[in-house]
Amino acid sequence: MGKLDNKVAFITGAGSGMGAAQSLLFAKEGAKIIAADINLEGVKKIVEKIKEDGGEAVAVEIDVSDSSSVKDAVKEGLESFERIDVLSNTAGVLDDYAPTLETSEELWDKIININLKGVYNVTNAVLPQMIDNKEGVVINIASIAAFVAGGGGAAYTAAKHGIAGYTKQLSFDYGNKGIRANAIAPGAVESGMTKEIFESGDAAVMESVNSVPAGRYGSPEEIATAALFLASEDSSFMHGAIMPVDGGWLVK
């Protein structure tokens, strides 16, 4: 028996990194996967892998910053599997650690629209049918930048603080309707979004990564394991939590 048998999971950013790792792990634990990403070709490869391993999955194209695209993707997913039990809002982008005076309005809007508005768009599209079903799990991927400065630039930090507050409010508003909303706050994790930064060998970045108690960056699979915990009944008494999975970044 898998931890997610007979569940359907909708995962954004599923074409790479933490979203892909969640898709593969959740499928192994028995979930049917609606793998959503703006890169349709990338997410199709994840779906192929799930099917090769005996799981069920569909790939859908989504631009989380566009409410029309989100509604279409959710509709397509529901047409395939009829319900969504678990939502993981994982899609996101970095702002290259830009301070506010180096953040153009265009960059600000891009980061906020994808990282924060995107969570709102997808949650609002999925939540009504969860409420109708009287149960559902929402997992939002925040960041240690939801707690402290230095995990990103001005726009990224603002967006991740917003995700933390939004997650708490979701729990407050809908916990009594059978919805569990929690967030994960990853530290430095090697993924498609951060690979270029880590490979650059930037001294300041690597000092931050290597100075945590773990002495290394994390893997997408380690974040997926935490997400599985939140998606499953193992975390049935957790509501509105922002759970650091950061190698000890926040103890510094």
Automatic annotation (TrEMBL):
Keyword field: Oxidoreductase
One matching Pfam family: adh_short_C2
EC number: 1.1.1.304
Alphabetized InterPro entries for the sequence: NAD(P)-bd_dom_sf (IPR036291), Sc_DH/Rdtase_CS (IPR020904), SDR_fam (IPR002347)
Molecular-function annotations in GO: diacetyl reductase ((S)-acetoin forming) (NAD+) activity
Similarity comment: Belongs to the short-chain dehydrogenases/reductases (SDR) family.
Protein name: Diacetyl reductase [(S)-acetoin forming]
